[in-house]
Every structure is written in structure tokens, then in C-alpha cells.
Design brief:
alpha+beta; TATA-Binding Protein; 141 residues; five-stranded antiparallel β-sheet
Length: 141
Amino acid sequence: MNNVMAKARSYNDMPITAGELAHRIVSYLQARKYEVAYSYDENKKTWCLIHARKTGKVRSVTGNRRALTVNMQTKKPRQCSIQIGTGEWGKNTIVSAIPMVVFPIIGFMNFVGSASSSKASEAELWMYIESIANKDFYKNR
């Protein structure tokens, strides 16, 4: 469990294919009420990009656009490298700054809460991926 917050990991000899793992990640995020957008290389199946954000009224009003981005790359069906990061859904900083001015207390509280929950969500997602992609995950538990 060292590396729970690591930004990148590689998996070899996974019990499922990288494509199946990508679909499970999308389902995992959707089950947790994330809005998910993803794309992948349909021909060679060498990469998949998943972008997910939490939705809600307070997040919309305060302009919170924190999102998780999962970047998967593979050369063989049962191996892949994964990078997970947090960022913004979209990049219009002027529009996203307006709610902080109009609703400063709510906006600040939502920003602080979002930043800490983003890291917690990232750690939970890594744990989920580990439980699927790492065939030795349950051996020492």
C-alpha cells in the first residue's frame, strides 16, 4: 500500500485486458456519480483517456470544475501504464473565477473541500485499479 497517491503505475500480466480495465474504471466512476467523458484509439487500442468530474448544484453555482483524468497506454493486451491526475474540467478561468467573487465564502469552502476530496477520490481510484490489475493484490491482505 505504499504508492497509494502515486501519479503513475505500470501493470504487467494483468488478469484482464487493458480495454476491460478501462471499461471498469468508467463504470466505477459513473457508479460514484461522476460525469465521464472518454476516448480511445479504436484501431490499435494503444491508449485510452478518461476525464471525470463530480456534478452538483453547489459545484455548478461556485464554478468548481475539479476533475480526475486517467491516461492509459498499452502495447500488449494484458499490460498497461496508467497516469492519474487532477485538474479542471475546461480551462475558462475568467468564467470560473466569477463565482468566487460573487459567492466568496461558499466558493472558497467548495474549493478547499474539492481539493481534499479530489486527492481522496484519486487514492480510492488507485485502490480500485490495484484490486483489479495487480494479480498479487489480495495475497498479503
